[in-house]
Amino acid sequence: MTVVATRIRPDYLARHAERLPRLLAGLTVGQPVGLNAHERAFGQLPLAAGEGRSRSVRAKASRLIDVVERSGLTGRGGAGFPTGRKLRSVAAGPGPAVVVANGAEGEPASRKDHLLLSRMPHLVMDGIALAAFAVGATEAYLAVHDEDDRLLASLEAAAQSRIVAGIDQVPIQIVGTDSRYVASEQTAIVQYINGGPGLPTFTPRRTHERGVANRPTAVNNVETLAHLALIARYGDNWFREVGQPSSPGTTLVTVSGAIARPGVFEIELGTTIGEVMMLAGGPVERPQAVLTGGYFGTWLPAEVAWPVPMSHAGLRSVGGAMGAGILFVLPESSCGLAETARVIRYLAGETAGQCGPCVFGLPALADALADLAYHGCRGDAADRIGGLIPLIEGRGACRHPDGATQLAASALSAFGRDAQWHDERGPCYGVRFPPMLPVPGDAEYW
Amino acid sequence: MSQHLRVNPIMCTGHGMCAELLPEFITLDPWGYPIVPDEPVPDELKGLARRAAAACPTLALLIDRRRD
Fold first, then answer.
1. Do A59 and A74 have their domain in common?
2. CB A52: neighbour CB atoms within 10 A?
3. Per-residue model confidence as pLDDT tens digits over A270-291
4. Is A303 exposed, middle or buried (0-12, 13-18, 19+ CB in 10 A)?
5. Which residue in B has a C-alpha nearest to residue A358's C-alpha?
6. ipTM of the predicted structure?
7. Which value, in Å, is the radius of gyration of the alpha carbons in chain B?
8. Percentage of chain A with pLDDT > 90?
9. Cross-chain residue pair A356–B8, CB shorter than 8 Å
């Protein structure tokens, strides 16, 4: 198998260095960027000072939403919903609104939100202040995992320094949520802030209509808010200068796996996966497949993935997923089925325990995948998996079961030949190598 | 006006009353949770569908009335 590198522009690295970074422009080594350094790098927060909801304040808020709509910014948490439209509908909702910044990065293979929050908290908080201004919010929350004490403390300090400096009209409250996978789902965060358990709720309750305290609530990913902070400063035309006309701007991606320089990178939307890999130092071994979009995402064979542009439309066109910008490179020596089996086992353990098809279906799916990956030789494991998927898909309150079945189905198609080998002759050599995908609490399972 | 059945998956604990009362329309998965087809309830089953929804011990079976 050869990796086709046709769509890697030869001058890509030079172009990249010329136009970026944007979000990460103020990044310094080791320390979070303080308020003064932040204002030196990006300038002051362009927020109209004004009390209450007077007419001129409302007009300014509406103009801010206009700029966001024209910029074409979409949510960076995974769903890719147009941010301007979300803010508009929350602003139009009845009563005072609430803004929630979602920094409870549930994806074990994603580090971008953590990077932003731990190193550039004020860029995110500027975004929260702007979103609160745009929708006329009287409360603002920033949700992060409660197990990360250092991050919580540094965010508290950052929020405090903004209050002292008199920047935020709405004080930002830091909320520590559960660190489980489903706790970062937006209805779960809203329920947690409302005093309930951090678990997803049944969907007809839409957060932009009735969220925190039954008020219209804008839940945005922290990277989306950081982009908002830049768009408010430099304008929509500036935002659209990079990226693609249909998906403008930059995005953060987390690259890991068999790659020379794993980490978080800022890229223009529309950059091909091959180019991102080049940015990350290139593969250290011949790549077999790429996991796109995280643990609710899809596997793509390497030769399919390499020329695909990183955008929601680009990845969808080959059956991939943008998700929160996660790319994991599986080397040829590893077994994709074994990796998938481990991740599905993890996701089965991460069920909120609310819906039967998820509670019982995901462990059954994990068993079937583990049988295929580590035992094989039964000739029916692939059929078993194929039969389970429709019994699980779409039958939960949130998309947790659907994400898991999508990953399992994509593994069967991307590693189809390997699955046949496992089923007929037993495990391949790849299962002898140590697993690569990060799974919290791994030792409990294997 | 057509009727669709819908299950609130959080409320449902798999008593199986619905499939008992309306086997023509509702089947159970291997774990005992109802599988409800996403199509209108046939006219002759509408009364039984109402009874099944009323009999659900956790009130998880919902009837959606949709304008055609």
1. yes
2. 8
3. 999 999 999 999 999 999 999 9
4. middle
5. B9
6. 0.89
7. 11
8. 61
9. no
Of the residues A354, A355, A359, A400, the best mutation for testing chain B's interface (the one with the most B CB atoms within 10 Å of its CB) is A355
Average pLDDT of A42-60? Answer: 72
CA pair distance A71, A216, nearest whole angstrom: 23
The tokens describing A125, both together, are 């908080």
Q: Report the range of poorest mean pLDDT among A125-129, A214-218, A227-231, B33-37.
A: A214-218
B13 chain-A contacts, CB cut-off 8 A = 356
Residue A32 has pLDDT above 70, yes or no: yes
Task: Give the CATH number for residue A256.
Answer: 3.10.20.600
A106 and A166 both lie in a single domain: yes
Question: Is B10 at the interface with chain A, CB within 8 A?
Answer: yes
State the count of interchain CB pairs (< 8 A) between A and B. 39
Domain range for A272 is 250-331
Task: Delineate the domains of chain B, giving CATH numbers in brackets.
Answer: 2-66 (3.30.70.20)
State the pLDDT confidence band at A48, using cuts at 50, 70 and 90: low
- 10 Å Cβ neighbour count for A401? 27
Question: Is the pLDDT reported for residue A4 higher than 70?
Answer: no
Q: What is the pLDDT, as a whole number, of residue A50?
A: 47
Residue at token pair 């002292």: A164
CA of A355 vs chain B CAs: smallest distance (Å): 5
Asked whether the beta carbons of A210 and A89 are under 8 A apart, the reply is no
Rg (CA), chain A: 22
User: What is the count of structural domains for chain A?
Assistant: 3
Q: Are residues A348 and A394 part of one domain?
A: yes
Q: Residue A113 pLDDT more than 60?
A: yes
Please determine, for residue A127, whether its predicted confidence score (pLDDT) is greater than 50.
yes
Report d(CA A387, CA A347) in Å as an integer: 19
Largest CA distance in chain B: 34
- Alpha-carbon gap: A403 to the closest alpha carbon of chain B (Å): 17
Question: CB distance B8–A357 less than 8 Å?
Answer: no
Q: For residues A357-362, give the mean pLDDT.
A: 96
Identify whether the C-beta of residue A365 lies closer than 8 Å to the C-beta of residue A408: yes
Pair (A375, A327) in one structural domain: no
Please report whether residue A390 resides in a domain: yes
Domain boundary among A198, A219, A240: A240
Using the beta-carbon criterion (under 8 Å), do B14 and A356 form an inter-chain contact? yes
Residue A8 lies in a domain: no
Q: Which of the listed residues A312, A331, A350 is the one where a domain comes to its end?
A: A331
Chain B residues in contact with A361 by the CB 8 A cut-off are: 29, 31
Please say whether the beta carbons of A47 and A144 come within 8 A. no
CATH number at residue A378: 1.20.1440.230
Residue A252 binned pLDDT confidence (cut-offs 50, 70, 90): very high
User: Which sign, positive or negative, has the C-alpha torsion A133, A134, A137, A139?
Assistant: negative
Tokens read off for A231: 């768009």
Is A306 within the bounds of a domain? Answer: yes
